[in-house]
Design a protein that fits this description.
With 427 residues, this protein is of the alpha/beta class. Helices cover 43% and strands 15% of the residues. The protein has a seven-stranded parallel sheet, with helices on both faces. Strands 9-8-10-11-12 form a five-stranded parallel sheet, with helices on both faces. The two termini are 14 Å apart.
Length: 427
């Protein structure tokens, strides 16, 4: 991309100092600490499924007191997100990345720029999974559109490779440089990145947070689809509606400590707890296909698995292959709008749904930055539409993306960008 570069790591001392800062809520600060990846790897690598984690989860799911005490479950947010699924968004029908659900508009006139050619900075958590790769390509294409129009000059990018301390250092380096006209941040984890985001806001640069949240509202806008509760509920409700009472469900999770993922599981617990389904347990997979296949196989060796719930579906094909390899009937499964899953779904005719965490959201922060420089209002919380793909519209999305690679996401929203389809095909 023209005028873009990757920022190198900043000073380790800055990272350590910022990572030691506390959030407004000490409990939140302690939850998703610096050992998130290690914890996920440890859980994913167990030789046997964790009976205690699974049994306890099934019992606790319907306990209102326990649910209310869950650090990651806020009932008001849960109910709001489920209700937002039925609200018609404002904005152009053919540009969902510019739509907003029930927006509360913020005046940005203090950040209006007199000239174009502004420097846009972006601190990215990572491009460590296909969803993020798809989105990152889309963001770059949107930036190029505004570079051609003269609204964006240099595009500076850092990639933390899922390392909290690295991202804290990256953000501080952007702050110290002092020449970002806007700073986009996609946080690695929630509580640990909060002080760094707050420091960016305090520097005076307009901050745009998207995808994953933090425990501050200092940013000009926080951009995200409806959220993890809605995603988890879409998947759990589908399993409840398509499985017989008493059927068994296995939950597969990526890692702990990321708000959107924790909210997905919290919503599923709430819905499963009110159902007659038997939750066998949950397993952290690290998003690794081999781990997913191995863990599902272990559960199948112990008995029936009728349904699979996933907090992210990019490994869903591996889960399905475990049933094929062991000669078991296909499960009812909630995957995601990654094409590998959708094509497997079409090929096998299994009972499935593709929850969506709208990948087109990667365009919205760039649009927001330009609006802020123009002094235009933006939503303080920019909630984008998030609608799952069902069997009724699956083939339409597959036809639309027929020439795209398997790791591409159907609802990426970049068909009108100048690099379509080549840059996504060449990933």
């Amino acid at each position: 991309m023209r005028k873009s570069r990757v920022l190198l790591a900043g000073a380790a001392a800055v990272a350590l100092a910022l990572s030691a800062c506390s959030t407004d809520d000490p409990d939140d600060a302690a939850d998703p600490g610096d050992d998130v990846a290690a914890e996920a790897d440890a859980d994913a690598g167990d030789d046997e499924p964790d009976d205690d984690a699974g049994d306890g989860d099934a019992d606790d799911a319907g306990d209102d007191d326990q649910r209310e005490d869950d650090d990651w479950f806020v009932r008001a947010d849960y109910e709001r997100q489920l209700a937002q699924r039925d609200i018609e968004p404002e904005g152009p029908a053919d540009q969902p990345w510019l739509q907003a659900i029930d927006p509360d508009w913020t005046d940005t006139s203090e950040f209006a720029a007199e000239t174009g050619d502004n420097t846009l900075c972006f601190s990215n958590a990572s491009v460590s999974n296909p969803w993020r790769v798809t989105g990152w390509i889309t963001m770059q294409q949107q930036v190029e559109v505004y570079q051609d129009s003269g609204d964006i000059g240099e595009f500076r990018v850092s990639d933390a490779a899922d390392d909290d301390n690295q991202q804290i250092s990256d953000i501080q380096t952007f702050i110290d440089a002092g020449d970002c006209d806007a700073l986009i941040i996609s946080p690695s984890t929630t509580a640990t990145l909060t002080p760094a985001v707050q420091a960016a806001c305090d520097s005076g640069v307009p901050v745009i947070v998207f995808d994953r949240g933090v425990n501050t509202d200092c940013m000009v806008t926080f951009i995200h689809p409806i959220g993890g509760y809605a995603y988890g509920a879409d998947a759990a409700e589908f399993l409840v509606d398509n499985l017989e009472p008493g059927a068994s469900v296995l939950a597969l999770r990526i890692l702990p400590g990321v708000d959107v993922l924790e909210h997905r599981w919290a919503a599923a617990q709430e819905i499963f707890g009110a159902s007659e389904l038997n939750v066998l347990g949950f397993e952290f997979t690290g998003g690794d296909g081999a781990q997913i296949k191995d863990q599902v196989t272990q559960y199948l060796q112990r008995g029936n698995v009728d349904g699979i719930w996933m907090d992210a579906g990019d490994g869903s094909v591996a889960a399905i292959e475990a049933f094929e390899d062991t000669g078991n009937d296909y499960p009812v499964i909630a995957g995601e709008d990654e094409l590998s899953f959708m094509r497997k779904w079409q090929e096998t005719g299994l009972t499935a749904v593709a929850p969506v965490y709208s990948n087109f959201q990667w365009r919205t922060p760039v649009e927001a930055a330009v609006k802020i420089w123009n002094g235009e209002e933006v939503p303080s919380e920019w909630v984008l539409p998030q609608e799952p793909i069902t069997e009724a519209d699956r083939d339409e999305f597959l036809d639309r993306n027929a020439d795209m690679p398997s790791l591409h996401y159907a609802k990426f929203g970049g068909e009108d960008l100048p690099g379509f389809p080549d840059v996504w095909q060449d990933r």
